[in-house]
Amino acid sequence: MVEPRVDPPVIDARRGSSHILTGVARLMCIHAHPDDEASKGAPTIAKYVSEGHEASLICATGGEEGDILNPAMDRDEIRANLPAIRQTELAASVKAIGYTEHVMLGYRDSGMPDTDGNFNHQCFAQADLDEAIGRFVAEIRRFRPHVIITYADDQQGYQHPDHLRVHDISLPAFDRSGDPGWYPEAGDPWEPKKLYYSIWSRARIVAWDAKYTELGLESPYDDKWFVRPDMDSRISTRVNIESFFPVRTRALLAHATQIDPAEKFWFGLPDADAAVAYPFEDFVLALSRVPTGQYETDLLEGITGESEQ
Q1: Which of 303-306's residues contact partners 24+ apart within 8 Å by CB, and which partners?
Q2: 140-197: pLDDT as tens digits
Q3: What domains are there in the chain, each with its CATH number?
Q4: pLDDT digits (tens, 9 = 90+) for 209-223
Q5: Helix residue spans in 81-197 (DSSP H)
Q6: What percentage of the chain carries pLDDT values higher than 70?
Q7: What is the pLDDT of residues 9-41, one digit of tens each?
């Protein structure tokens, strides 16, 4: 029971690793929009891919409701073709990170809360929950991941409807993918071993804010960043990604319509300084079918050669 370098194909529809897996592990990340894979977990995926493991990106929507946040890209021809451009940007980001593949679930972007996009019948927020879970289950059974990374149950800091929906489908899909009674048309059952929440920790914000001050730079973190809800007390896993931090920058810059290269929030600290100040990405182990310690430095901890199928 569950306890608390070729272009990747597009499919439509300071401590070393401690794991004892003797072969290739498979990790699957589910994100809401193109660019989320760049801002959340890109160095971690690059690290595991560099070790010979495989990684699948599931992108729930096409980001159709996204604004153009880079003034250099705010042109009529870009706005008119934004959905296709965002797909091109996503492919470039996926290649920079090293994902084995990326999969579009096929839903429309729901837009920010209380906007017209929330009511489009094709949007992710309006999708039938059971049907959306089934789509994700089909991808789990096809790729057969050992580890799934998704969004947290507590999203008070950013309540985008699509981010909430990603969480809503992830836990049931983790449970149901191994049960042949659910979605028999979706492929042979497969039980992932672990499910993690990827989080943006308060510890990282504090460390980076201090580094800005140390370097005499203006910090983008104003008072609201230090009072917003955080999940630091629940962190179970810190992955050292110091050597892979530049991957994040390359992946972010691939999303030229969404990321302004002059934006201090993303690029105010040089990569080397950001990586030294806080060389980790933080996760909460939400569900596990394998025994683990209270604290981990490796998403593959507890996954053995017996899990290779």
Answers
A1: 303/19, 303/20, 303/21, 303/25, 303/146, 303/147, 303/193, 303/194, 304/20, 304/21, 304/22, 305/20, 305/21, 305/22, 305/23
A2: 999 999 999 999 987 766 779 999 999 999 999 999 999 999 999 999 999 999 999 9
A3: 10-307 (3.40.50.10320)
A4: 999 999 999 999 999
A5: 82-97, 129-143, 161-176
A6: 91
A7: 454 443 334 444 558 999 999 999 999 999 999
Helix (H) or strand (E) holding 264: helix 264-267
Return phi, psi of residue 292, to 5°.
-140, 165
Largest CA distance in the chain: 60
Instruction: State whether residue 118 is helix, strand or coil.
Output: helix
The pTM of this model reads 0.91
Residue 121 burial class via C-beta count within 10 angstroms: exposed 0-12, middle 13-18, buried 19 and up: exposed
Question: What are the φ/ψ torsions at residue 200 (nearest 5 degrees)?
Answer: -100, 105
Mode of pairing for the β-strands spanning 54-61 and 101-107: parallel
Higher pLDDT, 51 or 17: 51
Q: Please state, as a whole number, how many other Cβ atoms lie within 10 Å of the Cβ of residue 150.
A: 25
pLDDT higher than 70, residue 86 = yes
